[in-house]
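Exercise 7. Given the encoded structure of a 256-residue chain, write a plausible sequence.
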């Protein structure tokens, strides 16, 4: 009987000790999150042992709280969840959140490329693959890796249609412009004007064409392109005025 009592007492001690070690860091974490101290919340989280289901709930809460305050800490919690979530769809969902934060918020394009490339390799729909490919192309563009970006874009032009293709063609024109391949960039932009005039206007693609004409000292064309979309824009009116002054200062330049 005495042995049974000792065993029960030992089990009770172990249970209470386990509860103490679990709840104490949890309370610290909850307190830190309430104060929006994300680094302290992360340190407390690392001290929590056992109860994986509970830890994942806490990680989700922490990621949500930290996102507006400390995006890197939020990414850390999403990384944890992407490694521990039971279902593949959940793991990929957390990866998507990480990639979006890296790309749109932190502007860590290299990290974004790694995750989007990983997502591309997964068993996802063709539409999702196109989306990730475009993000990779955009990230390479932002990093100044023109060749890598152009390689992605050229591949996508044969796989996309409609508005998505317009975005891809627009990006291609901008890449070619950065490479100073003006004739090819001009072809991309004029093709966009023919196939998607609304997109061309809304995204002010005419400014890129005007820049190309100006770089070749084709001031009349540069001015004409801006005047097509002048409307009541003070910015365009001042730009047209500046171009006319430049044109007039050329040896053979005259106002149209």
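Solution.
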């Amino acid at each position: 009987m005495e042995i049974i009592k000792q065993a029960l007492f030992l089990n009770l001690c172990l249970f209470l000790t386990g509860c103490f070690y679990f709840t104490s860091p949890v309370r610290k974490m909850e307190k830190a999150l309430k104060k929006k101290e994300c680094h302290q919340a992360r340190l407390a989280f690392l001290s929590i042992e056992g109860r994986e289901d509970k830890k994942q709930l806490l990680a989700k809460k922490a990621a949500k709280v930290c996102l507006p305050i400390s995006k890197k800490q939020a990414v850390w919690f999403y990384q944890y969840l992407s490694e521990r979530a039971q279902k593949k769809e959940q793991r990929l969902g957390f990866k998507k959140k990480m990639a979006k934060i890296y790309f749109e918020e932190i502007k860590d394009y290299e990290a974004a490329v790694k995750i989007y490339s990983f997502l591309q390799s997964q068993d996802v729909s063709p539409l999702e693959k196109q989306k990730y490919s475009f993000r990779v192309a955009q990230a390479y563009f932002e990093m100044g890796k023109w060749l890598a970006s152009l390689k992605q874009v050229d591949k996508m032009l044969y796989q996309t249609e409609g508005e998505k293709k317009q975005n891809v063609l627009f990006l291609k024109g901008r890449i070619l412009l950065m490479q100073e391949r003006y004739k090819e960039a001009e072809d991309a932009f004029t093709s966009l004007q023919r196939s998607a005039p609304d997109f061309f206007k809304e995204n002010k693609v005419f400014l890129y064409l005007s820049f190309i004409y100006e770089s070749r000292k084709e001031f009349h064309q540069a001015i004409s392109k801006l005047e097509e979309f002048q409307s009541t824009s003070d910015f365009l009116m001042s730009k047209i005025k500046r171009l006319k002054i430049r044109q007039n200062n050329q040896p053979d330049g005259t106002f149209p």
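Remark. Residues 4-10, 12-22 have pLDDT under 50 and may be disordered. Students should compare their own answers with the one above.
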